[in-house]
Amino acid sequence: MAIGPGKYDGACSQVRFTTDADAVVLIVIGGKHGSGFSVQCRSDMALDLAVLLRKLADDIDADKR
């Protein structure tokens, strides 16, 4: 996981505060600042986040087949 703010960190913060979420993963493809991502979560959630993202990637791969 990248450390430090990404190019979409402001938008990610806005979503996190608006939704009162513990974690937000924002993935942007073809945005006005190009493609990128921003993640905000508590440090104790990083492992759970990795598991969730791996499952998401597996589901996308399975859907393509």
Highlighted features:
single chain, 65 residues, alpha+beta, two-stranded antiparallel sheet, 2 helices, 46% helix, 26% strand, globular
DSSP helical segment count? 2
The rounded distance between the terminal residues' Cα atoms is: 27 Å
The structural class is: alpha+beta
Low-confidence stretches: none
Into how many domains do the coordinates divide?
1
- Binned, the helix content reads 40-55%
Average pLDDT, all residues: 90
Overall radius of gyration: 13 Å
Main beta sheet: 2 strands, antiparallel
- Number of E-type strands: 2
User: So what's the oligomer here?
Assistant: single chain
Global shape: globular
Taken as a percent bin, the fraction of beta residues is 25-35%
SSE topology string = HEEH
Strand order of the largest sheet: 1-2
Describe this structure in words.
The structure is a single chain. 46% of the residues lie in helices and 26% in strands. With 65 residues, the chain is an alpha+beta fold. Strands 1-2 form a two-stranded antiparallel sheet. It has one domain (9-64).
